[in-house]
Every structure is written in C-alpha cells, then in structure tokens.
Design a protein that fits this description.
Layout lengths: L1 E5 L2 E5 L19 E4 L7 E4 L25 H109 L9 H8 L8 H9 L5 H35 L7 E2 L17 E2 L2 H15 L16 H39 L16 E4 L4 E5 L3 E4 L2 E9 L5 E5 L11 E8 L4 E9 L2 E8 L9 H7 L1
Helix pairs in contact: 1-4, 1-6, 2-3
Length: 471
Amino acid sequence: FFPYFSGHKQWYQRRVREDGSDEPGTSACPNGSFYCANKGFKGTLIASSRVDDGICDCCDGTDEIGGHCTNNCRELGAHLQEEARRIRRQQAEGFQIRMGYIADGKAAKVRREDQIRVLAEEEELKRKEADERKEYKEQVEEPAKAAKETAKAAFDAEEETRKSKEQEEIRLEAEGVLTQIDADNSGDVSIEELLAYGSDPDTILPYEEIQLMTDSGEIEAATLLDRIQTEITAKKETAEREKKREEEREKRRAKKPKLRDVTAVQNEEGEELWGEDGQKISKHTEEEEDEYEDVEDYEEEEEEDPKPVRNTLVYDSATQELIDVFEEAEKLYNEAKKQHDTAKRQLTDLEKLSALDFGEEEEFYSLHGQCYHFKDEKYNYKLCPFDKCEQDGTSLGKWDGWGEDHSTMKYTKGAGCWQGPARSTVVTLICGSENAITEASEPAKCEYAFTFTTPAKCNKVMDEVEIHDEL
C-alpha cells in the first residue's frame, strides 16, 4: 500500500500508476492530463506538459500557477452563447422554410400521381388508336402498292417502245444523212465527199468537226453513222429545251403586271389620244413602270438550260384513288403515332421523376430542377441537385443517389482525369436558411467535396436546454 496523507486522514492505494492515471486532472504527472474547469465557458482537458509552460491554455488561467493569465471565460462564454442563439434563429428560420418545402413536395407528389394516372390512361388510348390506324394503313397499302407496280410496269413498257421507236427514227435519219454524204452511192465515204457535205451551212455535222475528222485520215462509215446519230439526238434535246424555255416565258408573261391607265394623255386641244391598237394612250406611275421593267429584265437574264422533256408516269383514276386512300391512311397513322410517342415520353418522364427520393417527407423536392453556383479564387462550381455537378463546365459527376440519412449527395461518372479515375463529388448537406454552396474543394485527386446549406436539412430546432448542454 502507498499511504497518502491529507489533513488528518490517511488513504491507501494498492499501487502507483506510472502513466499518471492515478493523478487525473492535475499536473502532478508528466504523462497525465490537466482539467481546465473554465467556468462560464467550456471545460477541457490539456496535456500535463502544458501546465506552467508560460502559455495560457485555460481561459480561467488555472494551468499557470503564477497567476499571470487573465480569466476571460465569461467573455468567451457570452460569445459562444450568442453564436448558439444565432444558429438557433437560423435553424428556426430554416425549419419554417422546410415546412413549406414539405408541403410543396407532398402536393407535387399528389399531382404527379394524378398526372401519371391520367397519362397512363391517355397513353393506352393513344396506343390503341395508333395500332388501329397502323392496321388500316397496312390493309390499304398492299392494293395501292400492287396498282402502282402494275401502272409502272405498263409505263416502263410504253417508254421502252417509245425509246426504241425514237432510236429507230434517229437511225433512219442518220442513214439518210450518210446517204447524202455518199454522193456517188458507193457505200464508202471519201474525204472529198465529207468536205463537200460540210460546206453546206445546214449540215448536221459542224464544219469544224468535219475538218477534225478528215485530218485523222480515212473515215469508217460505221463511225460516221454513230457520230451523226449522236448529233441528231443532241439537236432534238436542244429543241426540247428551247420549247420548255418558251413555255416558261409564256407563263411569266401571263403573270406580268398589266399597266393600267392612271392619267389619260391628252393633246393640246385636251382630247385623249388613242393608239393604233385601239387602246387609250396613258402615262403610268413610276412604281408601275419599275415593276414592268423588272419583269422584262428578268426575261432577258441568262437562264440555265432546262432539262429535256421526259414523259412522266401519270396514274389512271382508279390507281390514283387507291394511292390517295393509302397516303391519307399513312398520314393519319403518323399523326396518331406521334401523339402516342409524346404521351409515352411524358409518362416516362413523370415516372422517372416520381421514382426519385426527395426525402422521407418530400422535403428535398424544391431543389429539383434548380442549379446553384459558387466561385472561389480559381474556379466556378455548379450544383444541380438530382442531376449533375460541374467545375468550369467540366463534369464532376452525375446524380448517383443519397448517402446515409440523406446527409450527403453522391455524384459519379464525371469527366475522366488525366491518368486518373472519372471525377466524382460528395455534397454534404447542412441546415441553413438558404440554398447555397458554401465550400468546394478537391480533397483527393479527381474527388471533390461540396458543402451545401439548405432549409431542407433543418429538421430540428435546438431549445435553451440543448444550447446550455452544448455550452
């Protein structure tokens, strides 16, 4: 036993503890700890080695026996109490806002459920309507398709016959020209005969081309015949283009504004003048004359050669009726399908929204669809709850659910880091009277941390007893 004397009393210990635990709260042992009572503030333990080291560690100054430390515990306590009251006021304000969030969230949930029910019924009706119209479209499609194929086959056959006839006519015309060139009917074309033919200005072949042909030496009749046919074909196409061009001109002339009399032109005796065509001579406004001249100028502009006239397939009335029925059915089906797709997309979006966890009392619903910004010395941060996080436009992650007890939000699968993982962010939520990012950092490579205040987290207001216990 180790005796310990205090006044007239004697105490005994079974053993002495070398770690100083036999002298708790005092400076007697170097490895122990010293308790600062700090009355009026918060009591705390400090290492025994910090006792009598010349530094005031306890606000009541009891760690320095010399008594040179000022007791400022009451001032610190008053400041701490004021901070606690400020926090309590902030919590109370946030709690009231939270109550509004809860009411809004629950009301929105009821509306979503009603909308989902209505949209589900509407989507089903739209689906049935689209299926019915699709079935009808397919019924009328086959007859229309068969009729079109029959009509096209007949048209193609007629076109083939027409082209064969046209080619035969061109061949015969070319043979006639070749006969003209072969003046002595010898069956062979000499250079002299070709040059003699080329001297006529109305020849099919241009004289310049004939000269080139004769420069190459002897000319085979088959080669010359092919060249004549090519030239005849080109001339026919040119004639078709000119015909089409003239038709276009006539259409424009028909649309040309007619100059109307504005003020009749009179001679010196005041009599109105009449032209040889029996029309009264009149003068016109500048606007009318400009419009007339614009049309004339347009006609004089150089136009591109229109394509040669080609026959087009024109369906008979019975075939056209089948086609019209099908096209109308297809149009109605496309409209019904579009309406069904829209209803289905709206229903899917609502179901996805309804599946999100907005808290036990829907208190976090008000954060959905919102984005919050924070700027530090280097970067601009952006947080869109239930959606994404960004740093200067770079993805720091997409919504990946809640942490424990709705205290943190997780965002993962952001943009990849150079030689590192995909960026991710953990957002810590704390009670506050407003929604705001208050801190953003990167505690580890490609791993970010946000602190976000929100009234939605103010689920409890500290009372005076709790504040006293905290202090």
